[in-house]
Give the backbone structure.
Amino acid sequence: MMNVKRNNAWLLLLLLLGSVSCIPQKELLYLQNKESVVDYPDADVITGKYILQPNDYLFIQVSTFDPKISEFFNSTRAGNTSQSTQSNMFMYMIDDHMDIDFPYAGKINLQGCNLPCAKQKIKEALKPFLKDANLIVRMGSNAYTILGEVKNPGQHKMSKDQITIFEALGTAGDLTPFGKRKDVKIVRPQPDGGYQTIIVDITDNEIVGSDKYYIYPNDFIYVRPIRAKQLGIGESFSLGVFSSLLALTLTIVTLTR
């Protein structure tokens, strides 16, 4: 009878070890082919969908057939400044009224504009001064913030105007084994001052090319921990948990003698 109780105690220990000592591989794999219960709308181009907001920076460069005129408009703000300052001379901040202050053209309001709209408004404002001008207008402050179960949390610059969720996670060093891949939360500021919360399942192959596949400037990404971390489990089984389970089993064995 004692042997049966002792065997039952060791069986209990093995069951506990098996239930919490590893993270299922299915929870770690990206882009799985599975039956998705989510309908993912197709994505729009980010440069066409992102609405500019106060405190955004725009990179604006004027190009004409006359190099001297181009240099004049592009260097007006910098003057004879140092080389380190000249690197920012194409940057224009959008103020709280959604205006940029452009040389000679003055205040240009970009309320409700995406990048193509902003480019057109700036070009219209420059017509009295430049008949034929080519403009380069792109985001100058495109960054996102990521926190939670990633290896390199913090604010990261976007390498281009449009990046994917996987590029964003890759820049942050990828998720830790504890990152909840089925529940990545994106908090996105809205032009009206509100916020939109988006939940992304990066284990689902169907997100590729969808509206949830891309990161916008100023996005906040949070990767929640899975329950295994709350149990004290590491990438290998936690010594603390093992010790606790072993002590529990020895107690049971002692009591059943």
In short: Residues 78-87, 235-239 have pLDDT under 50 and may be disordered. The two ends are 9 Å apart (CA to CA).
